[in-house]
């Protein structure tokens, strides 16, 4: 059974259109965080987040400027 956390790992709402964006890259970030790159297949938006190990900490948007 997949938990919500597991599902959220692979999908995150697109910052531009709100559709489910796919996790395309995951790499270590300073402070024990993870840098996750999500790409939206609907509009092409790419959002990059720094995610803390503690799921209660909000994600930090590293890059996610709206598509023109
Ligand atoms: Zn989108």
Q: What is the general shape? A: elongated
The percent range for strand residues is 35-45%
SSE series: HEEEEE
Bound molecules: zinc ion
If you had to describe this structure to a student in words, what would you say it looks like?
This protein has one domain. The protein has one helix and five strands; from the N terminus they run H-E-E-E-E-E. It has one helix spanning 4-10; strands at residues 11-13, 20-29, 33-39, 46-51, 60-63. A five-stranded antiparallel β-sheet has the order 1-2-3-4-5. Bound molecules: zinc ion. The site of zinc ion has 8 residues, from loops.
Q: Can you tag this structure with a few keywords?
A:
about 10% helix; mainly beta; binds zinc ion; about 70 residues; 5-stranded antiparallel β-sheet; 5 strands
């Amino acid at each position: 059974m997949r938990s919500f956390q597991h599902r959220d790992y692979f999908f995150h709402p697109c910052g531009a259109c709100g559709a489910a964006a796919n996790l395309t890259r995951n790499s270590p970030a300073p402070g024990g965080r993870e840098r996750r790159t999500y790409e939206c297949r609907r509009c092409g938006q790419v959002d990059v987040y720094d995610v803390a190990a503690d799921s209660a900490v909000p994600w930090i948007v590293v890059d996610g400027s709206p598509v023109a």
